[in-house]
Design brief:
This protein is 54% helix and 7% strand. By secondary structure, the protein is α+β, with helices and mostly antiparallel strands. It has 2 domains: 79 residues, Glutaredoxin (3-Layer(aba) Sandwich); 107 residues, Up-down Bundle (Glutathione S-transferase Yfyf (Class Pi), Chain A, domain 2), CATH 1.20.1050.10. The radius of gyration is 17 Å and the shape is globular. It binds glutathione. The site of glutathione has 11 residues, from helix 4.
Length: 204
Amino acid sequence: MKLMYAPGTCAIGIHILLEEIGEPYELVKVDFANRAQYQPEFTGTNPKSKVPVLIRDDGSVLTEYQAISTWLGLTNPDKKLIPADAERHARMLEAMDYVVGFMHGQAWTRAMRPMVYTDNEAEHPGIKARGLEMFNRAMSLMNASLGSKDWVVGDFSLADPALFFVSWWADTRLKSELPANVAAHYARMRARPSVQAALAREGF
Ligand SMILES: N[C@@H](CCC(=O)N[C@@H](CS)C(=O)NCC(=O)O)C(=O)O
């Protein structure tokens, strides 16, 4: 298996899951600084120009955090990354959709890449501000739904590395103070050997 990633991106979520699983995998770094994700060598593999990309042993390509993580969870049942219980399984999907789809896909993209929405630079500060507002509000909602649980749905699951990468961005890129329950989750994540290994291998 190969994980195509760029340092500092959401691909760290899949990287963490690969470390949790502990099977051999290769890392392939995509040079975002030189816009390699838009070059034919990369788009031939993923025409969406995004990481993470998982290239499986049969050569087939899987994209999107939720699809990749679900495949990894289902093909490694002994790691118990997907709850057996229907309620927890549904809550895991609910959290992942919110973090990946809304916090990252909508809020973070507005805050960091307003040019995706308009070429009119005069509008960029307003779009960024709206994105940050959406992101911070979503973080508060995640904080409330975490409550006193150690992990998003009780036991560690596919949703935890997703919450980790948005918390990591808030901590290291926004330098913002995480709300208490998310801060405790972030500290728990940072203490996991899988997270430490993934961060180290990406150069952090
Ligand atoms: N929905 C995708 C989002 C992937 C995504 O947006 N990746 C970003 C990095 S965090 C990317 O590759 N951006 C490159 C670009 O847009 O040029 C997922 O969850 O896997």
